Amino acid sequence: MAVATKSVVSDFQEQGFVKVKGVLDPATVLDPIIEEYEGVLDDLARDLYEDGEIASEYKALPFDARILKIYQETGRQHAQYFDFSLPFQDVKEDTPCWFGPAVFNAFVNENLLDVLEQLIGPEISSNPVQHVRIKPPEKYLPKTEQGQPLIGATLWHQDHGVVVPEADETNMVTVWFSLTDTPVESGPLNVVPGTHRGDLLTHCDSYAHNTTMVQGRQIPEKLFPYRAATPLPTERGDVIFMHKRTVHGSLANLSENMRWSFDLRYHNTGAHSGRVAFPEFVARSRSNPDSELRDPVKWHDMWMDCRKRMSKINQGGQFDIPFGRWEDGHPDCEN
Ligand SMILES: O=C(O)CCC(=O)C(=O)O
Ligand SMILES: [Fe+2]
Questions:
Q1: Which CATH fold topology does 6-318 show?
Q2: What does pTM read for this prediction?
Q3: Of 228, 207, 209, which Cα lies nearest the Cα of 326?
Q4: Do 195 and 247 form a contact (C-beta atoms < 8 A)?
Q5: How close is the Cα of 83 to the center of ligand 2, in Å?
Q6: Spacing, Cα 239 to ligand 2 middle (Å)
Q7: Residues ≥6 apart with Cβ < 8 Å to 7
Q8: Pairing between strand 204-209 and 212-218?
Q9: Taking the domains of the chain in order of start, what are their residue ranges?
């Protein structure tokens, strides 16, 4: 056992989350991901330049300055290029996404899986609810029509709320880490201890905080003790493990630096993933080690097959396969 200890498990059970230091080796796990994403940014710059949306590909700029320049010049974020997931609707056969080998290598990191084994048990699947979040400093970002930064703080939610009800009994654990140090001013994860012991709370499509209507799905602050929220700054290599009912969001990136995180999910193999249109895979199996996926090309191909399937369903407002569980108009959502 590399890093899991008794206190990791008891902290997780008591608080609803635990930060474990030094799980991922920055040089062998994180740096190759950063390098891999240079190529993704090249793809994005080339596509935008060919479409006449940017004046140059900005090849000479370093990653952080280049992505910011592109976001500023286009006035849009291009998160889908970098994400190892797909939209729920209107996927096309060529919707951009990234399922590279360095990313996969982190998904099946043995230290990470050792901790998860303490929390989930010996049969663990990679759950397809997973995202990369690249957040440049807010002060340099264009604003949305509502006056919000293009990519800002994450609103209050529970990850249980992003899966369909069929997965209510699934033991899904969130794994959060960043590729860069994430001090408080960079906008780390912000969690409310103990909220995992409560129920799934109402998520509203938008909600008025004081007098300002904040757009985007969120749990109203009147439903949980939000003043008890604890920011969880991290250093490269640290990993946060979080219960699916822990209420959390993120702080805003008020720093001068890029804030770049991965959030992955894992669940007990055989349970419902909560997002069946997307592929899952066996990440660890003590009963059948041969079933563990270790081939990054197979992982990539699973998602390419999924993209093809998705390009034929959930088009133009049609929902053949549901992804969500919330309807507007719940009394909790009234101010
Ligand atoms: O990093 C963020 O901004 C939010 C991440 C999150 O919601 C999660 O890890 O479940
Ligand atoms: Fe979340």
A1: Jelly Rolls (2.60.120)
A2: 0.96
A3: 207
A4: yes
A5: 15
A6: 14
A7: none
A8: antiparallel
A9: 6-318
